[in-house]
Amino acid sequence: MAQHVVAGLDGSPESLAAAEWAAEEALLRQAALRLVHAEEVAAGSAAPMVRPDVVRGWADGILAEAAQELRRRHPGLEISTRRLSGRPAAALAVDALDADLLVLGSRGLGAVLGFLVGSVGLATVGATERPVVLVRADDTRAGGAGRGGSGPYGEVLLGVDIHQSCEPLLAFAFEEAARRGCTLRVVHAWTLPPVFSYAPVLDPGIQLEVGGTVAQSLSDMLAPWRIKFPSVRITERPVIGPPARELVYAADNADLVIVGRRIRSSPLGAHIGHVAHAVIHHCVAPVAVVAHD
């Protein structure tokens, strides 16, 4: 099956930044790029009805314009376009089933024609088991994929939980760092269990002892991946503090932040987790969310 990257477009600056990031990612992967637009007419909307042919013409226009600009910027890249229908999150998830990854803008128009409004973007992340990268338009640092630069690439930051099995997350992170030829920085944030609430006061060595065990567990988790990807430079750091806060702090110098999402079945729908939610909303760098068991 041919490799390809899917980018969602709604005409907003965020979706255009996502399309550019997706184009550079497709080149890194030696894959094709598919630009898609998901249209949905809001039921019961108070807004004046727009004729379907007008909506389709608008969608085709933004797809064609973006494809033309990306072909100009990346003449060797194979680009196709597709207009989707149905609820945006579901339509995007279905279209991404055969893709390497799905790339979206992290904010959208916030209007009838926009589909990358925060809640819908999060719903899309939860609706697919394919990796999803969320790109913001206000990441203006020089160099790197998705920001108009050709490299060199900055580091990839990976947040892991040593208490969970997360092979797809580790595979994605190591592959991304290998493609870019950059450093992979791995962070695991931890706190002392409640049973040790007063232990550091009574015995300062407790925190050092637990910290040493955490560091060893993190090293053991990464050991097989070091062997599999010998060319990837790795730095690993267990830090004390809430995972969401520590990852956001650590992301300042990252070109790509990678977090996991547990695949869960719930009558209330998909849940992406508070850590991924915080990183998506507070990191300026592109954020990849990778689903895993």
Descriptive overview:
With 293 residues, the protein is of the alpha/beta class. Helices cover 40% and strands 22% of the residues. The chain has helices at residues 13-29, 52-73, 88-95, 118-127, 167-180, 199-202, 205-228, 243-250, 274-282; strands spanning 4-8, 32-39, 79-85, 101-105, 132-135, 155-159, 184-190, 234-240, 254-262, 287-292. It has a 10-stranded mixed beta sheet with strand order 3-2-1-4-5-10-9-6-7-8, sandwiched between helices. Helix 4 (118-127) links the parallel strand 4 and strand 5. It is elongated.
Indicate the radius of gyration in whole angstroms: 20 Å
> Count of DSSP helices?
9
Number of strands: 10
Q: What best-fitting shape do the alpha-carbon axes yield?
A: elongated
Give the topology, please.
Blueprint: E1 4-8, H1 13-29, E2 32-39, H2 52-73, E3 79-85, H3 88-95, E4 101-105, H4 118-127, E5 132-135, E6 155-159, H5 167-180, E7 184-190, H6 199-202, H7 205-228, E8 234-240, H8 243-250, E9 254-262, H9 274-282, E10 287-292
Parallel strand pairs: 1-2, 1-4, 2-3, 4-5, 6-7, 6-9, 7-8, 9-10
Antiparallel strand pairs: 5-10
Helix pairs in contact: 3-4, 8-9
